[in-house]
Design a protein that fits this description.
Elements (H helix, E strand, L loop, with lengths): L3 H28 L3 E3 L5 E3 L2 E8 L4 E4 L2 E5 L2 E5 L2 E8 L6 E7 L4 E7 L6 E4 L6 E5 L5 E6 L9 E6 L13 E5 L9 E5 L5 E6 L5 E5 L10 E2 L4 H20 L18 E3 L5 E5 L4 E2 L19 E2 L3 E6 L4 E7 L4 E5 L5 E5 L4 E5 L6 E4 L8 E3 L5 E6 L1 E6 L2
Parallel strand pairs: 3-9
Antiparallel strand pairs: 1-2, 3-6, 4-5, 4-7, 7-8, 10-31, 11-12, 12-13, 13-14, 15-16, 16-17, 17-18, 19-20, 20-23, 21-22, 23-24, 25-26, 26-27, 27-28, 29-30, 30-31
Length: 394
C-alpha cells in the first residue's frame, strides 16, 4: 500500500505523462493543419499548409489577389483552389494556380528573375569559336585582335561565382599564339570533366590535345591527329555512361521511350530529383508508377508521351510535365540553384519552371551560334555577340 507521499508523486508523474501525450497529440494535429474554430465552439477545422519561399527573399505573397504575407512563411488555408502570386519590385511576378487539400503541404518555391537584366561585356577584343565544357565550369575561346595583337591567343573564362574580392572574374590567357600557330584558326572540344582540350585546325587535318591543368607550351602540344576520332568517341562514351547512371534513378518503364542515343536527351536537376529528357518514342505513362506523396503537385501533367518533345519527370512526385518541342527550343538546360530550365527559341533566350509554368524571356536580340552558358551560381547567363557578354538575371 502506497503512502500519501508516494501517491502524490505517482499522481504528479501520471499528470506529466498525460500532458506530454496531450501536447504531442495537439502538435501533431497542428502540423497536419488543424486549427481551433472558436466561432463554432471548440471545433477543430482541417486546413492545408502553403509553404512559400523565394529567391530573392522578402517577396510579397498574394493569394486570390490579397496581400497575405511575405516569403519565407507557412500559411494555413482551408482546402480549395487558390491563385498564388509572389512579387518583388524589379522582378517578374511568379504565379501558380494550386489545389490545396486538407492535412497536406504545398510548396511554392519562387525563383524570381529581373525584369530588365543588367548586361556587361566580359571580353573587349573578341571571342572566336567559344566552347563550353560539358560540366559547365569553363569557356575556351580564341582572340585575334588587329588592334591589340599582343593579347592574341587562347583564353579561358571560368564560370564559377565571383571569387575575386573587388570585382568580377576575368578571362585569362592560357596560351599565346606560337610561331606559325594561330589559335583563332582552330575549333575546341573539352573533355567531360573539363580538364583536357582537343584542338582541331579548321583548315588542315591536324589536332592537338592539351591538359588545362598544366601550362601550355609549344613542346607540350600533343599531336593526336591519328587518334582524334578515338578520343572523341571515348569522351562520348563517358558522357553516355553518366546518362545511363542517371537513367537508373528512374522507374524501369522509362527505358521504353528514353535512350542514350542522344547526348542531350537527359539531365538531372541540381537536387537530383527532376529529370529533363527528350522522348525518343511515343508512350503512355501510367499513373502512380510510384506512390505519390500527399503534397503531390496539382499542376497539369502530360503523361501521353510524344516523340520529339522535351519533358520533366519528378522522381519523388511521380509527375510528368511538358516543356516544349525539340524543333522549337534549342538545347535546354537546368539553371543552377533553381527549378527553371533555360533554352533558346528563335534567337530569344527564355526560362520556364519545371512544371511548364512561369515562362520568362531574358533576352530577345540576335546573338551568335546559339551560344548560351550560365554561371555556376545561376545568377548570370553568358552569350556571344562578337564578344562574350553576361546577363545578370537574378
Amino acid at each position: 500500500m502506497l503512502d500519501k507521499k508516494d501517491q502524490k508523486s505517482l499522481r504528479f508523474f501520471a499528470t506529466i505523462v498525460f500532458l506530454i501525450f496531450a501536447i504531442t497529440y495537439l502538435i501533431t494535429f497542428y502540423a497536419k493543419g488543424y486549427r481551433i474554430n472558436l466561432k463554432e465552439g471548440i471545433n477543430f477545422n482541417a486546413t492545408g499548409i502553403l509553404s512559400v519561399t523565394s529567391k530573392p527573399k522578402t517577396a510579397s505573397v498574394y493569394i486570390n489577389g490579397h496581400l497575405v504575407s511575405a516569403t519565407d512563411d507557412t500559411i494555413n488555408l482551408p482546402p480549395g483552389e487558390y491563385d498564388i502570386k509572389i512579387m518583388k519590385d524589379g522582378f517578374t511576378p511568379w504565379q501558380k494556380h494550386i489545389i490545396l487539400k486538407k492535412e497536406t503541404v504545398i510548396q511554392a518555391d519562387a525563383h524570381l528573375f529581373r525584369i530588365i537584366p543588367d548586361i556587361r561585356a566580359i571580353t573587349l577584343t573578341g571571342a572566336i569559336n567559344p566552347s563550353l565544357s560539358p560540366d559547365g565550369s569553363k569557356i575556351i575561346y580564341a582572340v585575334a585582335s588587329a588592334s591589340a595583337s599582343k593579347n592574341n591567343g587562347l583564353y579561358q573564362y571560368d564560370l564559377a561565382g565571383n571569387i575575386l574580392p573587388l570585382g568580377k572574374n576575368q578571362p585569362k590567357q592560357i596560351a599565346p599564339n606560337f610561331y606559325n600557330l594561330d589559335w583563332s584558326k582552330f575549333k575546341y572540344i573539352l573533355s567531360p570533366d573539363g580538364e583536357e582540350l582537343l584542338i582541331s585546325s579548321i583548315n588542315t587535318n591536324i589536332s592537338y590535345l592539351v591538359n588545362l591543368n598544366e601550362t601550355i607550351t609549344l613542346s607540350k602540344l600533343k599531336d593526336v591527329t591519328l587518334n582524334k576520332t578515338i578520343i572523341i568517341e571515348s569522351w562520348k562514351n563517358t558522357e553516355n555512361n553518366q546518362i545511363v547512371e542517371n537513367l537508373k534513378k528512374l522507374p524501369n518503364v522509362f527505358k521504353n521511350f528514353v535512350s542514350t542515343s542522344s547526348a542531350k536527351l537527359s539531365s538531372l536537376s541540381l537536387s537530383d530529383d527532376k529529370f529533363l529528357y527528350l522522348a525518343q518514342a511515343d508512350f503512355l505513362l501510367d499513373k502512380n508508377i510510384i506512390s505519390p506523396p500527399p503534397g503531390q503537385s496539382t499542376q497539369l501533367q502530360n503523361r501521353q508521351i510524344k516523340k520529339g518533345l522535351y519533358y520533366v519527370y519528378d522522381i519523388k512526385d511521380d509527375t510528368n510535365f511538358l516543356i516544349g518541342n525539340e524543333s522549337e527550343i534549342g538545347s535546354p538546360f537546368w539553371l543552377s540553384g533553381s527549378n527553371s530550365i533555360v533554352f533558346n527559341q528563335n534567337n530569344t533566350i527564355k526560362a520556364i519552371d519545371y512544371d511548364g509554368t512561369n515562362l520568362h524571356t531574358f533576352y530577345s536580340d540576335k546573338f551568335e551560334g546559339n551560344f548560351i552558358a550560365a554561371k555556376t551560381d545561376g545568377n548570370e547567363l553568358i552569350i556571344l555577340r562578337d564578344n562574350l557578354f553576361a546577363l545578370s538575371i537574378r
